[in-house]
Amino acid sequence: MNSYQKLVSIKNISALDTDQAVSHIGLMADAAFEARKEKGLRQALLLADQLAERPLTDAQKTIFFYHISNVWGNLHKLSIRNDTDLWRWDDEAVEKQMIWLRRSLNVYQAMAASDRFRINPCPVYANLAAAMSHVGRFVEALAYWDRALSENPGFALARGNRGYVRIHYAHSLYDETQALIFLRKAMEDLDQALKQDLDPSARALFSEYLFDLRSVFDRHSADFPDFEAGDPEAAQPEADYRSWCLQNRLFINPLNDLTPGRAGASDSLSLPAMVVKQEDAPDYHGFFNLLKQEFVSARWLYYEGISCDRTHFSDRNVLLYDTLDHPVYGLAAEKVKIAFRVAYALFDKIAFFLKNYLSLDVPDKKINARTLWHEPTGSIKTLRPQLADLQNWPLRGLYWLCKDLYEAKPGFEEALEPEARKLHGIRNYMEHRYFKLQKDSTPNARPAKGQLVFSVSITDFQAKTLQILKMVRAALIYLSLSVHREETRRAEKRQGKVDLPVWELHPIADGSEK
Q: What is the secondary structure of 125-181 as a DSSP string?
């Protein structure tokens, strides 16, 4: 407490140099949380506002943004008093924590690319993973924990937490074989974490999880399948494509979130069995089929676009004027643009699916992925009452994923993704105006509102399209598993009542009609 009192006595950081001030914010975040003092955390935010007025180097920004994220993360922890608080759908502190972590990561990645500065990004990855996991974005959480462990394989806390989330991911699955594979991998994580140095509280928690898993494994050891490793078996160039999908985690298959093994090299996830009205029997599964097909087609077009190393014959004898601004034209670039369009449009189609499945009172013309979740109450966002009491982890994850999207409406302009506005601008210009791809050597300038053209370098655009593809893939997994959780809830509610018929739908083999 003495350390806290000394830190909180500083009301102004003007006497501190920039490095000292940055360090002070971090010390305040830790000390105030240990003292359980929300007032101290709020004071740290005020001091951060003072520091933000100074010019900061990229290295200072990376650390400063990380410290601010810790202040918000600790405010969130102090606000959790019971299970009801854990299931809050909205949480300003978690939103701010994610935004500042992403800003820190963006600056770090820009520095890492130029080799100007080297810091340890593992705490940023781990904290972002923990925040993502809390709100239900477990697909993305696992990717961040993997990145932390790739930087530092001995990061025991990250490994144990990854195992913990794999357990909960397993419990969200309706495929028992996949769930058992996840539990096996979770057990490996927990076992490895416990062989390293850990905080006593974390050690006790991970030991409890591992004990429970081992008891399950001892009872069902014969049922635990092996996770097939290695690249998918296919002829070239299909094998190259499928290996690329595995490495980038782009198969609509939860097993692709574990390791890049053959078992994950298919788009096998669909909707679970559903109880629906007879006239709606095939509609939801058919709708999900369409969402998957559009996604995998966009994924292939993107792969073709980035893999092409020669001019396509359709581009020959096409007269184009040299505008002297280094534009990129050609079928390969257009394929990437088509992939972006198709993928981005899937967010609103997912919203339309949910509007009907959850019987949300939203006019069809006003449905989009960002605003679907809220009552139409002007600039004040109010979560729809049908959603507020649902303890549906994947559905909440989908809700929070949609917060990454920008929407030019009051109350929705601020997104969790720092580049959300730019992604929205790309889509808008691509659909309705003059969107120009330029060679990487060309300065990348975003035009002011009202100008004719929106310019993006080809490499930057390819990276953003891959980002959208990964977001859509995660959204489709959350959608499927949220339906599974909701169908389970509805079945429990129907106990003792006569069920409507359950329609069993079978997949079309190899994508061909029978």
A: HHHHHHHHHHHT-HHHHHHHHHHHHHH-TT-HHHHHHHHHHHHHHHHH-S-HHHHHH
Three-state helix/strand/coil letters over 318-329: CCCCCCCCCECC
Place of tokens 């004898």: 317
Closest listed residue to residue 108, CA positions, set 146, 137, 148, 74: 148
What are the phi and psi torsion angles at 507 (to 5°)? -70, 155
At 374, give phi and psi (nearest 5°).
-120, 150
Identify the helix (H) or strand (E) that includes residue 292. helix 283-307
In tens, the pLDDT along 79-109 reads 999 888 889 999 999 999 999 999 999 998 8
CB 245 within 8 A of CB 265: yes
Angstrom distances, CA of residue 230 to CA of 149, 188, 246: 20, 19, 10
How far does Cα 27 stand from its chain's mean position?
Answer: 29
128 domain-assigned: no
For residue 407 the two structure tokens come to 């929407």
Same domain, 171 and 249: no
Cα–Cα distances in angstroms (integers) from residue 91 to residues 86, 290, 379, 396, 400, in the given order: 10, 33, 17, 12, 10
Whether residue 336 contacts residue 465, with contact meaning beta carbons closer than 8 Å, is answered with yes
Establish if 8 belongs to a structural domain.
yes
Write the CATH number for 213.
Answer: 1.25.40
Q: Which amino acid is at 357?
A: Y
Question: Is 126 part of any domain?
Answer: no
Structure tokens at 423: 């992604």
In a domain, 127, yes or no: no
Q: 149 with 136: CB under 8 angstroms?
A: no
For residue 383, list its beta bridge partners: 374
Q: How many separate domains does the chain show? A: 4
Structure tokens at 160: 């144990």
Q: Identity (one letter) of the amino acid at 18?
A: T
Distance set, CA 416 to CA 102, 141, 250, 465 (Å)? 8, 15, 22, 18
Q: Is 384 left (phi over 0), alpha (psi -120 to 50) or beta?
A: beta
Query: What are 473's two structure tokens?
Result: 């893939």
Do the Cβ atoms of 401 and 475 come closer than 8 Å?
yes
Q: Residue 318, CB half-sphere, CA atoms under 13 Å: how many?
A: 10
pTM score over 0.85: yes
Q: What is the pLDDT of residues 356-404, one digit of tens each?
A: 999 998 888 888 999 899 987 766 678 998 898 899 999 999 999 999 9
CA 120 – CA 125 distance, rounded (Å): 10
> Residue 114: in which H helix or E strand, if any?
helix 92-114
CB 38 within 8 A of CB 29: no
Half-sphere CA count of 107, side-chain side, radius 13 A: 20
Residue 234 contacts residue 207 (beta carbons within 8 Å): no
State which residues form the domain around 71.
1-119
Q: 506 pLDDT band (50/70/90 cuts)?
A: very low
